[in-house]
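User: Can you help me understand a structure? I only have the sequence.
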Amino acid sequence: MAIEVEIWANEAERAAGAGNWAQAEALWRKVVEKSPNHPKAHHRLGIHAYQRRALKEAAGHLERAIALSPFDPFIRLMLANVERDSGNIRGELEVLDGALAVDAYFYPALLAKAIWQEQHSTPSAAAETYRNVIKIAPPENQWPRELRDQMIHGRNFAQKVSGATHAKLLAALGSDWQNKPKWREAVSIMAGLTKPYPSICNQLYVPRLPATTFYDISTFEWVKEMEAQTEAILEELQGALISRKDGFTPYIQYLPGQPVNQWAELNHSDRWSTLPLWLGGKKYDENIAVCPKTFEALSNADLADIDGLCPNAIFSALAPHTEIPPHNGETNARLVAHLPLIVPDNCVFKCGFDERPWIKGEIFAFDDSIEHAAYNNSDELRVVLLFDIWNPLLSMEEREIVRILARTMREC
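Assistant: Let's start by predicting it. Here is the structure, written out as tokens:
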């Protein structure tokens, strides 16, 4: 009998795949007659009854299927559709919650719950659930065709609600607090427009340092003197763009077999190229020879020197219409400083929640362990002098500890 039932079940699946619904349903009925506790048969008969709008019959088969196969969230999602179309609003939610109790990451059920909340609960509850759906769902190019429109609607709905919530929270702050960066970012996070930006280090993380995006550059004594050398440094850069053109090499250079993640478009690409004076603590004498004034200006800065990591001092060239994607740096023991040299319009740098344009000759310093990105949206080349300095919150003794830890880690 078991072989006969299996044959009917396979034939039913083939018939349904070919669109022969009546034949498929008849075969599943034969399965149930011979094997009353066949969970797939009850599941499929529930689907067929639902298609015929025989909702009571569909519910009976699906409830039986759940009893026989309690850990299959797909059956519960189908029953939720039946409850919805039957007008049983509470029953629909209970069944969806049951599906999520079986698998909290079953995003089709979470999407159905968001739709339920949009219709029967508060916009903020629905928006939060839609955001969670987007988080746990696969990338957009992998969304199932039958869910795509609902997913796009949910994303747009969440953004609309976040915008309204953001405006309401800003109004509640009042004019005295709206322009303070800390609270402006708090409001953006609360509204769901942006995420928190913690310090995340790829190598050495120093706990209990504040995750500050841009530092007050006026606190660094060497800055004014270096900014005064902007034209001399720019002149050397322009010469290097000619005489050391071949020295500008792709900054991103992953080896075959290494995961490139967000760097796929820039891997081994001259769209982001650099001419190093120092890189990973190594001097590049042939480049320094054509940029002596730049090297001298850098020697007066508080350059970070961390074994195998710093100092870095490079001319960073970003091609037109090129984006450096969001990423995190190696350690919060250092900051990264930029001296903008060739800066067309429509270029912007973003660190965490904050963003700013490059302004020729005006240095800024940021904690690159916080997610940051760069955008050249112009038709021209953008070049900055990029270099590492010590995080000013570390004492001299702590700098030495950082060096010891970095050196020892490389020996492990």
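Now, to help you interpret it: The mean pLDDT is 95. The chain has two domains: 2-161, 217-411. Let me know which part you'd like to focus on.
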